[in-house]
Each structure stands twice: as structure tokens, then as C-alpha cells.
Amino acid sequence: MEIRDENYEWAAIDRLGKMLKSPHSTFKTTHTYSTFTAILCWTTQRIRTCPIRPDKDIYARVPPEDDPNFEVFDAIQISLHNESIEGFFGKLPKATGNLNTLKLEDDEGNPISALAFLVSLRNAVAHGDGRSVKPVNRPKQLVGFEFPLSNPRGFPAWSSVTQLNRSAQVQIAGKMVDVFCERFREQNTASESDLATIGESE
Question: How many C-beta atoms surround the C-beta of residue 179 within 10 A?
């Protein structure tokens, strides 16, 4: 059996979501980060097939041709655009030091949208080669990663340096997995039990 074309868009994310919640026993923080990054890059790119620009009319956008799932994923982008960071992702778990502390308002004092936050975070991890993303350490322990964030092009101005531990990464990426998969399942016939029978190569 295989993951069919009509299911692959959410089936792969569904599996990454399961991996997110069950990281490697020895390298939990690193494994979580790698899954977090994959989920962010995939879902953010997919929902922004026709990107929203706050300085332009949302309804003047021209949907792409030959994309039967456009409305499903674009609805997620619109939800992110219309909600604040904590409104969409919830409050992050409390942690020591600067971990899990987010900048919630832009330079004008207005709430930063969940979409602006997500795109900025995706931009940081997509270039996480040592120039941007940095490890956050405690004595003899890797506890999270640091991300330089700033407003995506066209969004109200803001910037911050944000540190996220494993729990915060699970919460943010897990929310994207849940929304992404739930929206897609609503119009699809395949169930999780169907997909569970599909194996993977060694």
C-alpha cells in the first residue's frame, strides 16, 4: 500500500505530528527541533499558496489554478491572519530565564498576528544553519533553541529574539498539525486507521 495523492498532504504531516510527540529518548530536544522545523516549513508554505499581505486587499488575491485543496489551506492562513499569537497558539508553557517569552505587540503597540509570527519563525528555521538559530544551553544540557524573529515583508514592523524549549515547540508545531489535518480530514474519505496500515521503507 501507499499514501495516495489525495491523502499525502495531510498524511505526512499527521506522521510528523506523532513523531513530534514521541521524540528520540536520548536526543529529545534535537529530535523535537528537527520535527518542529519540518512541520513549520511544510505547513506554512502550503497554506500560503496565495500569500496574504496586510497592506493589500485579501479578497483581491487571485487563487492558483489546478489546486482543488486551495480553499482548505487558505482558510488556515486567514484564521492565522485574523488572530493574535496567543489567540491561535495559546500561551506558551512557563519556563526559566528567557525561554518561551514572546513579543506580542508590534512597534505601534498592536497585536502581532499569528500569521506574522508563524512566517517569521518559518523564515528563521529555514535558514537555521548557525547564522540565525542558536542552541540554548544550561549546564551540560541543551534545553531549546533561539530564533531571531522580525516582521515578514509587508507586515507591521517588529523584531525580537525568541527562545523556545521543547514543550513550546511541540505546542506551536502541534497546533499546526492539528489544524492542518483536521481541515483536510473533513473533506476526505481516508481515516487514520487506513493510513496506519501503510508501511514505510527501511
Answer: 18
